[in-house]
Amino acid sequence: MAALNRGAQRKHLAREWELRGVMRCSCGLKMATQTTRANASRGCYPYHYYRCNRSKDYGSGTCPRRSIPVKTVEHLVWGFVSSLLKDPGTILAGMEALINREREVGAGHPAEEAAMWTERLEECERLRGAYQDQQAMGLMTVEELGSKLKGLDETRRLAKVELAGLQAREKRAEDLERDRDALLRSWAGAVPEALDGLTGQERNRVYRMLRLEVTPTTEGFAVTGALRNILHLETDTTVADPTPSVRPAG
Are 137 and 197 spatial neighbours (Cβ–Cβ below 8 Å)? Predict the structure, then answer.
């Protein structure tokens, strides 16, 4: 019976967290979700929060950030994002900026860098064989061969690290392009009624496709990713049921 009651309680408290994985505390940690209950004469009411676990994990006082009620932040963020989803040009520009940033990291062009490091790897293999042949013919001591091979191994390691980084950046850029196309096809330019009808899980997917991160600040919430702004609150960000308003950052 106790197990059944716990299962019913979990079902009662379950919800779609729109900003799960999107909220980041000002101390740097991702914010977790939390649900508490308050008993009242007419029943048991759940209260839902985003909270930083640094104090819980690392000790009291390591992060002063208080829990943030979902009513404080979810409506505010969705109001900002949904208003911009009605403008496909803004979504396209924001996503293109992220894609270009991924492909422009580092010096030169990714394709040229990849070709250069691939050539380095091939050269290492050629030199390895040449050095071994020279040692076999008595033109190089074993110690000299070991020193040469050690240098080649370090070059090979560096080349593989650089190639892996280039491939990872290209993969992120391709993922961004896919999400850009999906956003423009499915949500950008949608009528308000369609956007307002999205579930919490669907909104979370939109945020992740936009690579949004929402961080509480002294002014309200900073939004980064494809859409950037400071969302201001007229009331304290820890009040249980505030009336937020969005105005341009500055």
Answer: no
